[in-house]
Amino acid sequence: MALTVVWLRDDLRLADNPALHAAAERGEVVVCYVLDEVSEGIRPLGGASRWWLHHSLTALGASLKERGMELILRSGPAQAVVPRVAAECEADAVFWNRRYGLAERTQDAALKASLGDGGYAVRSFQANLLFEPWEVTTGSGTPYKVFSPFWRACRNRPAPRAPLGVPGSLNGPVTESEDLASWRLLPYAPDWAAGLRETWDPGEHAAQSRLQHFLAETIDGYARARELPDTEGTSRLSPHLRFGEISPFQVWQLAGADSGTAAAGDLTVFMQELGWREFCWQLLYHQPDLATANYRPEFNAFPWQQPVEEELDAWRYGRTGFPLIDAGMRQLWHTGWMHNRVRMAAGSFLIKNMMVDWRVGEQWFWDTLVDADPANNPANWQWVAGSGADAAPYFRIFNPVTQSKKFDADGGYLRRWIPELRSAGNVHEPWKEGVSGYPAPLLDLKASRDQALSAYQDLRQA
């Protein structure tokens, strides 16, 4: 009987997994995940993502075991490990779902060639993006640089395919597997993940439950509620999508099926969030160094200031003296997640008030976010900096006081994450009353804003 090795990557699910589905249709299956932390160009996971990966693999392994299957775990360079697994199992095919970073594509192409030369049938599948990055281009065949026309072009294409179900039957031989605990993905000495454990439930079942809860309880009013950090107004699907515990096709179908009950405006905004994810991946596909190089090269001349470590730590750990920034950074440290409105404010503060290179913030978020995505994270940081595609105008500087007054008027979010302010009268501007135990403002908002605007203006005129 035909036997296929399914090499999983950022697609840790059984439902709507095209590679797994096709493999099950042709015969026996061996499901393998390779922890590759040594291949050149592939970005190592940050600490919070490693925590999520451990639990996601645990959940996937349990789901496979319920079906009489084992999840095979191996570590090392995938270029060597995948062929070794195929040979051990006496497989005749290797299937996987596509990746879109340059290093990953290069690795996949090399493996496809070498495995093909070795007599294996090799197939790759579209699984984690609604639209392939090379399919959505301008009339002249170039990549889109602005989101709105990109998303219009996507919507004018044939509708995304319907998601696939879980294969009806899965069976195959068992081969040697490494012990997940030996990978030491979980933090130790110290164990800083208590907040992650109390906030998240990784895995495919949890992803499906979260989506269904969102569509049943949260989608109504989403267009406004998603802006309010003290409200459960967002889907919180981002880490599940990042690790492929749920596919965008599943989200698209279920959200579309909900169109009869949810307000059209709320659904449109939610679908646009999926579209922004697609846009970011298109950017990464066409600019592989998105996390390290300015998308707009003119920003190479921007006068970033060398950060003072004490001031940088004040931002990292929520001690800037500006409640919205501090609440967001403390939420991030505790839960591995931050509300998107606050992410924009925290990013703007680092870049445009502290004048720190956006790459410093991108790296911190990469290490601390459970949804640290290779495309979304750098694209969003560059959007805030003004150096990216479809970027925020250079003069858009998020005032943390104005933002908290507008989107957290009663201060519930601020007080939740900053215990020092729970009895403060003026929670948005505590320095006006002098709150004991809470730091004074790190900088002058107006003076730092003027400095940033001057630097941006100089750059535009250069």
TrEMBL record:
It holds the Pfam family FAD_binding_7. InterPro entries: Crypto/Photolyase_FAD-like_sf, Crypto/Photolyase_N_sf, Cryptochr/Photolyase_FAD-bd, Cryptochrome/DNA_photolyase_1, DNA_photolyase_1_CS_C, DNA_photolyase_N, Rossmann-like_a/b/a_fold. The record marks W304, W358, W381 as: Electron transfer via tryptophanyl radical. GO terms for molecular function: deoxyribodipyrimidine photo-lyase activity; DNA binding; FAD binding. GO terms for biological process: nucleobase-containing compound metabolic process; response to light stimulus; response to stress. Signal peptide: none annotated. The keyword Lipid biosynthesis does not apply. Residues 2-130 form the Photolyase/cryptochrome alpha/beta domain. FAD binds at Y222, T234, S235, R236, L237, S238, F270, D371, A372, D373. Its cofactor is FAD. Binds 1 FAD per subunit. The keyword Oxidoreductase does not apply. Transmembrane segments: none annotated. Keywords: Chromophore, FAD, Flavoprotein, Lyase. Coiled coil: none annotated. Belongs to the DNA photolyase family. This is Deoxyribodipyrimidine photo-lyase type I.
